[in-house]
């Protein structure tokens, strides 16, 4: 047993939670505390968790639904260990997860977190890649602007976090249901805490269609994250740092424009079917994003023109579709009236 608390947020996850829990219970080094936080699941899903807890012997905590970040915060607040390992309900630890990460902890008040590589798998846990973190960006984290320019690929499920650092930055920002990980580690980095990367997988990251990454919640969080970062890093011509122009637009433009396009122009595509019910919201995000870009002095007129044209074309398509739908409904009522 060691000085580590493991927290799993749980939301209607009966399909996967046994696998996650058993991976914690089978660790080569056992956690001092182990808590699963029920984040307002349906009654039958909450009953499933309670029955599993009675069978396998772990603690649970019930709370109203507030999202994964909120559930993680509640779990950390309910434990006392100086180090925290988090696990998503659909992922699972490799047997030496805690042992490997705990060895990387430095006896230093500035230590923030250590993180490792992951294996990628499908929803059933079948491995797709045995290593994936290094393929996407650089490690460990040493440059805030590099951290802003792309996804950080620091996953809580493959990390050990200092309670001191976590509490110093007040944990996860509950407004996010997506990008909460980047936001947390970015704030810990800016608060002066250090990080260490372990070039070894300790977790299996299972990607499935129910993931938040494919939902409207990710779209909302992306936009909120962009606004939060831009507020913290306005353009600074003295130091030649233009976060909106050089980092945020290249990173997020394709997703913001593309999701509105899929929802409005291609609603029958695989991605469009998920997004089409939220077309108005995605159009609103696109409009707000366009206005933010237009108001930024240091963005080129060519970029402003391109984004304005993209937004206008998608909005026009939306209006035409709405007008066509209204006309069809009008004709249908007339025909029925004659009948």
Q: What is the β-strand count?
A: 9
Basic shape? globular
Class of the largest domain in CATH?
Alpha Beta
CATH architecture tag of the largest domain: Alpha-Beta Complex
The quaternary state of the protein chains shown equals single chain
Write down the Rg: 23 Å
Outline the low-pLDDT stretches.
323-327
The pLDDT mean sits at: 92
Ends distance:
78 Å
Tell me the series of helices and strands, N- to C-terminal: EHEHEHEEHEEHEHHEHHHHH
Number of helices: 12
Percent of residues in helices comes to 40-55%
Return the CATH topology of the largest domain: Spore Coat Polysaccharide Biosynthesis Protein SpsA, Chain A
Reported for the largest beta sheet, the result is: 9 strands, mixed
């Amino acid at each position: 047993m060691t000085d580590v608390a493991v927290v799993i947020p749980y939301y209607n996850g009966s399909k996967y939670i046994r696998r996650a829990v058993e991976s914690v219970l089978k660790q080569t080094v056992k956690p001092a505390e182990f808590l699963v936080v029920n984040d307002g699941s349906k009654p039958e899903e909450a009953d499933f968790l309670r029955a599993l807890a009675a069978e396998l012997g772990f603690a649970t905590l019930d709370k109203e639904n507030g999202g994964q970040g909120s559930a993680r915060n509640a779990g950390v607040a309910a434990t006392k260990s100086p180090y925290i390992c988090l696990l998503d309900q659909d992922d699972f630890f490799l047997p030496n997860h805690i042992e490997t990460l705990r060895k990387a902890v430095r006896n230093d008040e500035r230590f923030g977190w250590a993180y490792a590589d992951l294996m990628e798998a499908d929803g059933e846990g079948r491995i797709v890649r045995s290593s994936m973190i290094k393929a996407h960006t650089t490690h460990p984290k040493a440059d805030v602007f590099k951290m802003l320019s792309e996804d950080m690929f620091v996953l809580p499920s493959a990390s050990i976090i200092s309670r001191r650092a976590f509490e110093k930055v007040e944990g996860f920002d509950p407004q996010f249901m997506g990008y909460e990980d980047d936001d947390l580690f970015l704030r810990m980095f800016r608060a002066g805490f250090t990080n260490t990367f372990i070039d070894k997988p300790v977790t299996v990251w299972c990607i499935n269609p129910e993931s938040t990454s494919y939902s409207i919640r990710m779209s909302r969080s992306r936009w909120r994250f962009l606004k939060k970062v831009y507020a913290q890093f306005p353009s600074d011509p003295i130091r030649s740092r233009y976060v909106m122009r050089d980092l945020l637009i290249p990173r997020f433009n394709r997703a913001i424009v593309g999701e509105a396009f899929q929802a409005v122009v291609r609603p029958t595509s695989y991605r469009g079917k998920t997004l089409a019910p939220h077309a108005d919201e995605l159009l609103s995000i696109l409009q707000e994003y366009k206005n933010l870009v237009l108001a930024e002095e240091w963005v080129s007129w060519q970029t402003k023109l391109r984004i304005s044209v993209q937004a206008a074309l998608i909005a026009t398509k939306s209006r035409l579709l709405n007008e066509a739908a209204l006309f069809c409904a009008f004709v249908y009522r007339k025909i029925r009236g004659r009948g």
